[in-house]
Amino acid sequence: MTTELALIAKATVILGIALVATRVARNARASVRASMLAAAFGLVMVMPIASAIAPAREVPIPAAIAPAFLAGEPAEQTATANAQPLPTARNASSTWQIPSARLLTRGAWLLGTVITLLPLALGLWRVRRIRRRGHAWASANTCAEELGATLGLRRRVNVILQQEVATPVTCGWLRPTVVMPIDAPGWSAEDLRHALLHELEHVRRHDWPVHVIARLTCALYWFHPAAWIAWRQLSLESERACDDAVVVQAEKTAYAEQLVMLARRVSTANPLLSMADRRTLATRVASILSANVARGRAGAVTSALVLTGAAALAAAIAPVTSIRAQSRERDALTIPTSTGGPAFEVVSVKPNEPGDRLRVNDWQPTAGRLILRNLTPKVILTVAYANTATLFLPDELLLGVPEWADHERFTIEAIAGRPVTASDMQRMLRRVLVERFALRVHLEQREQTAYRLTLARADKRLGPNLRRAKEATCEESRRPRGSGEWGTQELRCVTIDRLALDLSERLGRPVIDQTGLTGIFDGTLTYSPSAEELAAIYQLAPSELPPAAFTGPSLTTALTEQLGLKLESTRAAIDVIVVDTIDRPTPNNAAELAPQVAQPARQAALGFDIVSVRPNTGTDTSIPFGPTPPDGFNVVNRPLESLVRYAYEVQFFRLINMPAWANQERFDIIAKAGRPITEGERRLMLRQLLADRFGLKVHFEPREQTVYVMTRARPDGALSPGLTPRPECPAASDKCVSAGSAIVPAGRLSLKAATFDLLASGLMSAVLESLVLNESHVDGHFDVELSWRPDTATADAADSRASFITAIEEQLGMKLTSQRRPVQMLVIDRIQRPTAN
Question: Are 679 and 632 in contact (CB under 8 A)?
Fold first, then answer.
């Protein structure tokens, strides 16, 4: 909001000066006061462009009184990373986030501007309609030419009659038009002459475009009372200036009476330049009848003074940029630790192969993308907790990092899904470390000797070798720091924070930036390092240094003379971040493989109204399948193990501690909900039923298992003839229901309108008795025909068909690759035979 607040402040200054000036010049001519206000509105209108092209001049605002949104980026919170548990990235991305105060403020500003522009647009449309429907008045046009000559008006003005107006009005700029009421031909010659003189003076003064610009300015600053006060004052002074042009050629009393008569005809406010307006009538009549009012046009000298003053004011305030001044109440280096706010929508954390040597640190805030490749957790910590997003946290300020976090390497790829600021991306990266690496940290302060970097000159000017760089020519990601060699050091797209970090490394002591300078700079720095500086950087003894290393000014002298900066010794409270815990990251698929299990407390509201559970004492071991009632759940001769799998949506090989009797004993269950229920509600109700009647208690637990990953087998991504696409069933279709049959012992499958997710989680997982993850990225529905040789003891040895995995590749164009991954297993903590009805 820095730009918007700067524009509001500048508009306030300009309009305030104009209103004060008109008050001071209350005894001057009305035309002079109108010129002041017109210049002010024009200046406010062009101020955004002038501010954009003028060289910036920063004005610090004390941090204690500056509003939070004055800073370019949100202020960091001081809470530590372990202040409170955070939601997962998946939950955060699916929850609607409240827009920021900055976005809401800008939206309200834009909405108010649009609403305020509506009356102006309606008025302009009305002007166009009036001009098109008006009737030419030849005699009045002749009279207007004669009167215009007396006023020095060299433009042709068209006079028309219109029944929609009650008083004379003026409109148009390139083709000015005076619109007279339909009964104007019946007016006296004196009244007609007064009206034409008044309106022609509006044309000569160019009041039409001036008033349009003023109204546009009021619409842009609709919330600013000074804009509307200045607008009303401009309207009054413009009318009084035109009245003066009439009074110098006519009798005052007759003209005042004519204005009163016309004002009685006006029932509502007229958006045009109307000759009579009830709101200003009393002031205008008093001015007309007064003998002490100065009248006449603004002279050339006066107009030149007004324009010169406007130009000087524009040159003074256009370059001003408001910034938050850095607090100097105490010298300190702080470390940001907040993790609140929106998270990345997609996050991938993977360990790197030992032989991988490519390292990437790619920040793209404007694209909302972050890639940290082949970096250790310690390096990632120095990025996430740096004082500024373009820096790295020095190693001496990071304590408690375990040895593995300084050797093992990982790749983090994250997508925010929207443009963010650099500090936002830092905060989101800290959140990834908290959620995926179980990071817990706390801050400690250590007081030590440091340097304070300030501006050396009293007038706050920079040195001759330091100049502001153009943002467009610099990279969007992390900017390079200057050369590390002594002699001439080139500074390219360097922030003062980064320069302070370079100086810290050279001097071996923290350097605190208290210059208040923001933005990026180019420059050169030529100096001769001292033996202490070289020892800190290169670990060299003075005897090992070449003599040329000590020629030239010292670093402190060069900073003052060349860059306009000064180093002062101080005692500073330095934040040190201490790592309490950090673990190896959770795998990417751990959350994806975990079903959303409702806890019993949350399921309590979902229960069947009527439940009957009976043991099936028959000798039939088949499991019949029948239609599911829309308002309940009915099964016959079903083992308890299959009911648990259905309720929790897991395959049989993901069940642990299921007793043998639960797979052997059969039950008949009839349950009624008393209303139609969805499939999801049915599963939740069944979980509650199993907990109530069978005492079921479970929990999910990740365990390393062999899984199969399904990907496309062919390099070109083509599918095989065993798949027939169903164009009428797109990926998002809810009308295509899979149907078909599978005879696993015989090695045959026929499905209609099936998805690859269904194939992976259903058939393939059942045949392989292991989880199959669909990573083929194939959407849509397909008719599937598949045949393979069963891998069973009763299989025909002469069966020449391919094995299941080979058949998948040849007939479907998919490849199954075995991997070891953590799989969320459903662990049975307790289960017992059911209680009686």
Answer: no
The dihedral sign for the CA sequence 794, 799, 803, 809:
negative
CB crowding 419-442: b at 16 or more within 10 Å, else e: ebebbbbbbbbbbbbbbbbebbbe
pLDDT at 697: 92
Q: Could you tell me which of 249, 102, 258, 83 has the C-alpha nearest to residue 168?
A: 258
pTM over 0.85: no
Where does the pLDDT of residue 327 fall: very low under 50, low under 70, confident under 90, or very high at 90 and above?
Answer: very low
- CA separation (Å) from 775 to 349, 713, 765, 817? 17, 12, 14, 11
Instruction: Kindly report the backbone phi and psi dihedral angles of residue 521, in degrees, each rounded to the nearest multiple of 5, phi listed first.
Output: -135, 155
Distance in angstroms (rounded) separating the CA atoms of residues 280 and 282: 6
pLDDT tens for each residue of 115-138: 999 988 988 898 888 888 888 888
Mean predicted confidence (pLDDT) in 202-227: 91
Alpha helices for 577-718 (secondary structure H)? 600-603, 640-648, 661-664, 679-694
User: What type of residue sits at position 677?
Assistant: I
Q: Please, are residues 418 and 458 in contact by the beta-carbon 8 Å criterion?
A: no
Please, which residues bridge with residue 361 across strands?
372
Structure tokens belonging to residue 554: 């010292």
273-274, strands of its sheet edge to edge: 135-136, 158-162, 177-181, 169-171, 273-274
d(CA 30, CA 297): 8
Residue 600 in 3-state DSSP?
helix
d(CA 438, CA 579): 11
Alpha-carbon span 511 to 527, nearest angstrom: 18
**813 and 701 Cβ atoms separated by less than 8 Å:** no
DSSP output for 493-560: EE-HHHHHHHHHHHHTS-EEE-S---S-EEEEEEE---HHHHHHHH---GGGS-GGGG-S--HHHHII
Identify the band that residue 417 occupies on the pLDDT scale cut at 50, 70 and 90: confident
CA distance 87 to 396: 31
Separation CA 159–CA 193 (nearest Å): 13
Find residue 324's DSSP bridge partners.
Answer: 61
Q: Alpha carbon of 599 to those of 316, 365, 602, 688, 700: distances in Å?
A: 66, 38, 5, 10, 11
Residue 444's SS3 state is: strand
Q: What does the pLDDT average to over 27-36?
A: 90
The answer to whether the CB of 818 falls within 8 A of the CB of 711 is: no
List the one residue out of 89, 81, 91 whose CA is nearest residue 588: 89
Q: Decide: 667 and 640 in contact? Cβ < 8 Å.
A: yes
H or E element that contains 202: helix 189-204
Write b or e for each residue in 107-127: b if 16 or more Cβ atoms lie within 10 A of its Cβ, otherwise e.
Answer: eebeeebeebbeeeeebeebb
Regarding predicted confidence, which is higher, 17 or 397? 17
User: Which amino acid is located at 207 in the chain?
Assistant: D
> pLDDT-derived band of residue 35, with 50, 70 and 90 as boundaries?
very high
List the one residue out of 170, 195, 196, 165 whose CA is nearest residue 266. 165
Report in angstroms the alpha-carbon separations of 56 from 17, 50, 51, 319.
22, 11, 8, 5
- Which pair of structure tokens corresponds to residue 312? 């000087």
Residue 287 is inside which H or E element, if any? helix 281-289
- Would you state the pLDDT for residue 622? 58
- Rounded Cα distance between 506 and 496, Å, is 15
- Report the alpha-carbon distance of residue 687 to residue 602 in Å, rounded: 11
Residue 479 pLDDT grade (very low, low, confident, very high; cuts 50, 70, 90): very low
pLDDT, one tens digit per residue, over 196-209 is: 999 899 999 999 89
Cα–Cα nearest to 90, from 700, 588, 650: 588
**81 with 339: CB under 8 angstroms?**
yes
Token pair 């600021």 is found at 421
